[in-house]
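Quarterly update from the structural biology core.
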Amino acid sequence: MKKLLLLLAAGQFAGAQPGVPAVDYVVPAAVQPFASDPATIWYDSFDDPGALDRYLEKISTPDLFYLTSEQAYGGAGLSLKGLFREGTVSAGSLKVAFGDSPLARVQARTGEKFTEIYWRIYVKHQRGWTGNPAKLSRATILAGANWSQAMIAHVWGAGNATPFLTLDPATGIDAAGRLATVKYNDFDHLRWLGYKPFGEYPVFATPESGKWVSVEAAARLNTPGASDGTFRLWIDGRLDAFRDGLNWRGTWDERGINAVFLENYWNDGSPVEQARYFDDFVVSTRPIGLARAPLNPEIVKTTFESADGGMQGAFEVQVATACELETGSPAPSRGKATA
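Predicted structure, tokenized:
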């Protein structure tokens, strides 16, 4: 099925001219293909509370990180809410292990070795969201039972002064091709491969809050001994940033990518109390793209608000561009860097 991006344009309004409304979400088809797609490694719609027990690790509390019906992609079901109170640093995380992970709680495709994966999560920041949290997600190679890591593909905020995401690749393999890390987040032994370029879509900007956004990333390991690895990021199906020429693992070839983490971690703490939501989490061996919609899609826009109580008169939806994930080819206008 062809996947299209949609723009929601303002029409005529009574009263003060508001900001242009946006697409909150497109109501998805009742049956999504990911649960039965042979390329899928992991799929969680978060509608089954018991599914959280299948994760490698969940850091959750009843009042900070929990399933809720307040918001859900598609308007029904549950999503995972992370509540940041003022000053909150950690609002919870989920970690899924798969493939050839050396840890006990491997939940999918046990024993398989993955050299390229894609992972997608829908994210919604509450209306009026302020600031850029440092963490969103990462894929990694867990190399040993001590949680040592051979590589990490971080999808992180690009600093509190910006509303963008960035790609921050790291390797735990030394110059001689040996595993150097001895624990999780072993900063003394990780080598950072550079975190630029920043993305171009202001996902954390206040005007962009209040709607669901698809964040998809992909990491492909380098051929052992070569520097041909890649790291890519798409926002709502459009390529936002990518890296090539990466040497993720030197000549080390003992394991593949075997874990993805979803994170609500804010290094400096949230400046105010605010929440964000996760939904429709997919890990796959091929491009995932946006949630699938029926042939006649139903589109839900963001709530209209006017400072003087004016009423919205009209709006229109326009097909803007074919989704670039159809081909996976980078857009020339998007950020690119070579290691």
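The radius of gyration is 20 Å.
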